[in-house]
Design goal:
- The structure is a single chain.
- With about 210 residues, this protein is mainly alpha-helical.
- The chain has 2 domains: about 100 residues, no CATH class; about 100 residues, no CATH class.
- The chain contains 11 helices and 5 strands.
- The strands form 2 sheets. It has a 3-stranded mixed beta sheet, with helices on both faces.
- A hairpin with a 3-residue loop joins strand 4 and strand 5.
């Protein structure tokens, strides 16, 4: 058992205290990856958490990178389909949770394939893509089944897998009491898809 996994167990059993950032690389620790059951054993629905974590870890590779990178590929046409399905789910969620403006913006946008550099430039802007992310994030934080230190540390460790909050929320979905289908985001991510919502269009690209 690695020292980081030992720290995790001691932390969850309240034998030691660490800042949540201490576990940022927990799922990139070789020993920990082979002990997912032990990591998630401290949480309800642990079997579902293990399954989702395996889904993500099996779909990507570090390959000398700081964060997990998806290994799947698909056609540009399929990327547009996956991205559109995820956008429709975001629109549905915004409508259900009362933000009709975000729901309207996301419902009328048409998907177009662009280069990855265009997506990277766009995501830095003040655009609906970021407003929806903040909106979903606020509801995720308010809907966690467990409001304890272990939960906050777990979410930090899950973010550390790929520096991706949506992916972290996909894995942690069994701990989130929220009606949003994050599986649709995972399906886009695992084939290397990225998308950014502007006022009138959804920019879609591949980072592979």
């Amino acid at each position: 058992m690695s020292s980081l996994l030992v720290d995790w167990c001691n932390f969850c059993e309240e034998k030691a205290y660490f800042d949540k950032a201490h576990f940022l690389s927990l799922f990139k620790d070789v020993s920990a990856v082979h002990n997912l059951d032990e990591i998630f054993n401290y949480f309800p629905n642990s079997d579902a958490l293990v399954e989702r974590a395996k889904n993500v870890l099996d779909a990507g590779s570090l390959d000398q990178r700081a964060y997990l990178f998806p290994m799947g590929k698909c056609s540009n046409a399929d990327l547009l389909v996956f991205a559109t399905r995820w956008l429709k789910e975001q629109s549905r969620f915004c409508q259900c949770m009362g933000d009709t403006e975000l729901a309207w913006i996301s419902s009328k946008a048409s998907a177009v394939y662009v280069s990855n550099s265009v997506v990277n430039d766009a995501v830095q802007l003040d655009i609906p893509n970021n407003w929806i992310f903040d909106f979903i994030g606020d509801h995720v934080r308010n809907s966690k089944a467990l409001d304890v230190n272990e939960s906050y540390a777990l979410f930090e460790a899950l973010y550390g897998i790929a520096a991706d909050y949506y992916l972290a929320w996909y894995i942690a979905a069994p701990l989130i009491d929220l009606d949003i289908n994050l599986d649709l985001y995972f399906k886009l991510w695992k084939v290397g898809g990225v998308s950014v919502l502007l006022q009138d269009k959804l920019l879609v690209s591949s980072k592979i």
